[in-house]
């Protein structure tokens, strides 16, 4: 039987089993059939074995790690079809120009009562040990149509006592919950990649559960977003995970339903390793981030501390202090415009319009800093001229209703409608090419994903054109910015959402996007570094959003770009939102702390190092530890409210290593590498350690 691949054309042939459905060969994959009666697919790190009912169980190094389970299920209005009598299995050796050598097994079965045939293709590649692609097709062999309500793939349960699992979800939730969470009693999370609400949705199509010794991940590898879900729940025996579709359809007699290309992976450690594998697979598919300009790693000062009612005098008065502390970017945030949608200059603040905007960017550069401009594309306020003149730009749902952006009480515009694209491309070209900004901060939770668009004025071939076209919208914005200035920085800040992987190619910098805690800064950072790889400019967002409103350690220690929205010499007099105790004003005490951290950041520049994310498990290892290798040194940052005990320094090569507490500038002695080195320590909040080969300066 030919292999199943990404561009497989449908072709029905009769094989060795009467009525068996087979697929034509994918043009990009060379395959050689091999004789085998094995019911197992995958490799030594992930074996998937099928029984006579086409239930499966998973094994690692030949040892079963799950029980038999109906892992691939077709869901009908009349009930789930879980059992298919296995009729045939065929095996191929693959030689794929994108993913290299591999193997594929195709299993065919039939449910006689429902008259449905199922084929499951399992493909594995040598470059990605422990990961397998799973694609399933169902054919209606009966004479009556079938009301399909969805399907479920890779549905497995890992066993373990309560409290022995953690989970990771790359999906967005309106309450902005943690991406990584312990699986507590009663835990259940649907993890939909669709819209969670009108302006929150999308994400990275990977979910994960793991114990201290082993983890299981699922996801999809389609080149565009798909509205699948990846449910995780705590069970009586442990925790379960699957990837599923809830798209209803009618399967006519003789018709075929082909599911998305999904994957399943077994791994050790936390979510970092499977996210790295997903990133490697998608990179081979052509989806990866750009190489960011050097300025994407420079510290950022943002004027948002003064909020929308800022004055130019406030910003101009703060610039010298920001420059003195070592900040290199100055962001003009929300409030420069008349409204969201028109993006006209507010003449009360910039009375000469374009001329004053050019003067603003010149003033920033006079301070030795780079100007960046805040924008919230795809949002049009009620009463805006663009909404009145170009109501055709709106994204409409099936009933013809508009979608709202709740923060601004605005309406969502369709990213796949050419006039919308042209409008924002022109705006970005003006901001960078005419006004002189050197970066763009694209902000708003609605930027991560959009709903299907049914606006008849757009003539979409499919409503999903808006969903799948969002990445193309960002690509157009990115191109416009870099056409105007090749060194421009495009920052995408989808507030509170889970990073949408398919938007990655059009992004120079991702921030933690309004973190609710320092834990979110660090755990999001670990995930994004796995997904962005060595092309990573991840920013910790304003330090004022972190624990204590001053936790630079949670950015510096994980290799995140630092930023602040401090005010100086006083706070805004008319805040529109609650302010933390003491406000945002840079007191003498804060100034000393800010100066120390900016100095440490710029001295060591850890974002340009190699983040070693597999050395420590963020869920189970205590204290929480992150490691970065740079310039022959290893940097360990440990996090805990209080710690008094022994620390493990994993990953040190053989030899003698000098240890230095960088924040307190004190030596910590030396250790021997090659095995796991240990360091007795006592600290509160964090300990920032540099390990250097003996004989080198700290």
How would you explain this protein's 3D organization?
The protein is α+β, with helices and mostly antiparallel strands. Helices cover 17% and strands 34% of the residues. The protein contains 9 helices and 41 strands. The strands form 7 sheets. Strands 1, 8, 9, 10, 11, 13, 14, 18, 19, 23 and 24 form an 11-stranded antiparallel β-sheet that branches. β9 (100-111) and β10 (116-125) form a beta hairpin. α1 packs parallel to α7 and α5 runs parallel beside α6 (465-484). The protein is globular, with a radius of gyration of 27 Å.
- Estimate the mean pLDDT confidence: 94
What separation lies between the terminal Cα atoms?
A: 61 Å
Record field, number of beta strands = 41
Number of contiguous helices:
9
Structural class: alpha+beta
Beta fraction: 25-35%
Query: What is the molecular shape?
Result: globular
Helix content: 10-25%
List its salient traits.
698 residues; alpha+beta; 11-stranded antiparallel sheet; 8-stranded parallel sheet; 9 helices; 41 strands; globular; disordered N terminus
Brief summary:
The protein contains nine helices and 41 strands.
Question: SSE layout and pairings?
Answer:
Blueprint: E1 30-34, E2 40-42, E3 47-50, E4 56-60, E5 63-64, E6 73-76, E7 79-81, E8 85-96, E9 100-111, E10 116-125, E11 131-140, E12 146-159, E13 166-171, E14 180-182, E15 188-189, E16 195-197, E17 200-201, E18 203-210, E19 215-220, E20 232-234, E21 238-245, E22 249-251, E23 256-258, E24 262-267, H1 272-284, E25 300-302, H2 312-325, E26 329-332, H3 354-366, E27 370-375, E28 379-380, H4 385-389, E29 404-405, E30 410-412, H5 418-434, E31 439-443, H6 465-484, E32 489-493, E33 510-511, H7 518-532, E34 538-542, H8 553-556, E35 561-564, H9 588-604, E36 610-611, E37 624-630, E38 633-649, E39 655-661, E40 666-673, E41 677-693
Parallel strand pairs: 25-26, 25-35, 26-27, 27-31, 31-32, 33-34, 34-35
Antiparallel strand pairs: 1-8, 2-3, 3-4, 4-5, 6-7, 6-12, 8-9, 9-10, 10-11, 11-23, 11-24, 12-21, 12-22, 13-14, 13-18, 15-20, 16-17, 18-19, 19-24, 20-21, 28-30, 29-30, 36-37, 37-38, 38-41, 39-40, 39-41
Helix pairs in contact: 1-7, 5-6
